[in-house]
Structures are given as structure tokens and as C-alpha cells.
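User: C-alpha cells for ABC transporter domain-containing protein, please.
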Amino acid sequence: MLVVEKIKVKFEDKIILNNISFSLEKGERLVMVGQSGCGKTTLLKTLAGLLQPTAGSLYFDGEKVRGPAERLVPGHDRIKLVNQDFELDNFHTVTENIRLKLLAFDDAYKSSRINELLKLTGLQKYSQRLANTLSGGQKQRLAIARALADEPDLLLLDEPFNQLDFNLRNKIENYIDVYLKKYNITLILVSHSAEETMRWGEKVMFLKGGKVVRTDSPINFYQAPTDKLEAGFFGIINTVYHQGGDIHFRPHQYALTATKNRDIEIAVTLEKVVFKGWYYDHVFKVGNRKIYLYNEKPLPSIQSIFVATLF
Ligand SMILES: Nc1ncnc2c1ncn2[C@@H]1O[C@H](COP(=O)(O)OP(=O)(O)OP(=O)(O)O)[C@@H](O)[C@H]1O
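Assistant: Done. Predicted C-alpha cells:
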């Protein structure tokens, strides 16, 4: 349904995206991750037809997606991007901002859809406010409402929930989840959060320096990272020095007695214990480094742990 072939983007002779190729079936979900500046937003804008690739092609349902140099009005009718600038109609009210995306529908549908989206995003009481008077989080919610009103076939979300509090975020995420499934909408989401990536990513694409270095499931990334960068993205990683090299393990990957003969014993000194809800986070010193160990209850006084190396 979406086919990306050797996309290259250059800004002032600097290669930002280098030979990006992948494809997605209708209804699939992909999360793009990678360090700041690796090209995620540039790729989303290119996929939305808002940025002209220097080389390569994009096809959506068998048709070529034309970039801004090939279209009078940049963009694509069935591909919608919620980016970090929100791109609202600043001098229109919240309601008008949503209504402008519903022009093709009759008045009864428009009203009920506007009410549904205002309720979902908790913006009812701001419905008559001008968009440029909203807070950052309110603007983000309005941008999401507009993208959903547009009824896209491919939804592109650039860190869409990063300004929302836990409850609202949960509610909006659940709604989008059901909505996408109901209409079999394809999703590409850019995220900096491991939790969000695991929540949304059937497939996760890791970008480094404008290249795709790995596409895999979240569980494979978590359990079998190829390096510290990948490991660190998906959660805390402990690193300790052992017999001439570094070994890595996650905060729950330890035992108080050796469980396998390849387990490595590490001497630890407790620094502090932090209550984190359903678990306790223990900070230990190992040489001049700190490590973190999770346990449901505070750990008894220990001087050593046993670990197996993660990669
Ligand atoms: N219009 C532009 N002109 C020149 N360089 C640009 C332009 N837009 C982006 N860049 C550069 O391209 C690189 C990739 O930027 P991009 O915004 O795609 O990264 P990102 O992975 O989304 O980063 P972040 O996670 O910080 O949002 C960066 O080095 C950025 O400075």
C-alpha cells in the first residue's frame, strides 16, 4: 500500500536521508525511532508529500506521491501528518479548525463529528477560542482532532502525545487505536519514548544518520539490542566493567544467587532505594559507576548480584 524506494533527501549538499526503502501494508503500524537529528521528521514530511526528495520514489496505493515541486498544492489528500508545528488555522476558533476539515460532509454529520472530537480531546470548553490563544498541549490536541476529522488512509504522527498528561493521553491513544482498527488506517508514528514505541509499534524502524539500520519488533529490540544506543532507547541499561570489557544488563536481569554457570558475579554497594509504585528502584555503586536494580519489594542487604550479559 505504501512503497518507499531509495528515498534520498539533501539539504545544502548535506545528505539527511540516504536510500530509505521500506513498504507497509494497509492497516500496518510502524514506529520510527532514533537519536535527535537522525532524519525522522524529514522522512515523515517526505512521505506526506511536503518535501521533495532529491532521489527515489514513493507510491501510495500504486500511485506515485508527488512532492511539492510536482504539485500546485503540496501534500496528499489521503495522507495526513500531525507535525510538531501543529499547522492550525490560528485565527479560526477551535470548532472552525475542525469544521474546515469536514467540508465534504453534510451539516448533521459535521456537528456530531465536531462534538465527538471536542469531547475526545477535552476541548469542549475552548470550542470558541481562537487557535492561537491555546496552550501547547491544547494545540496538540486540536491538531490530532483535525487529523482524525480528515479521515486519512495513512496517518503520520510526529511525537503526537508528548505534551499531554497521562489520563488524557491514555484516552486519546485508546480512541485512536480503536479508530485506526475500525477503518484499517495505516499509521507511522515518530517517538522518543520507549513506552509509546512499545504501545504502538508492531514494527519499529531504527534510524541512524539518515539510514535505516534495523527494522524489528519492539520485543526483539528490547531483548536483543545490537548496541548500547538501541538498548538505551528501549529502557535503562546497566553497564559494568568485567574482565577487560563492558557488560550490559537491564535492571530486572539479575539474580541474588547464581542461576546459570555463565552468570557473572558483581560486587555492589547500595546507595539508595526509590519507591516507584509497583516496584522499588535500587541505586547501587559498582566501582565508579552506578547501576539500577528493580524489585517488587526493597532488596535485603546484598553485597553481590549475578548477571548474564545482554549483548
Ligand atoms: N530545512 C532544512 N535545512 C537544512 N537542514 C535541515 C532542514 N530541516 C532539517 N534539517 C537538518 O536535517 C537533520 C534531520 O532533521 P530532522 O528534523 O528530520 O531530525 P529528527 O530525527 O526528526 O530530530 P528530532 O528527534 O530532534 O525531532 C538535522 O540535522 C536538521 O538540522
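User: Anything notable?

Assistant: Residues 11-12, 16, 34, 36-42 surround adenosine-5'-triphosphate (CB under 6 Å).
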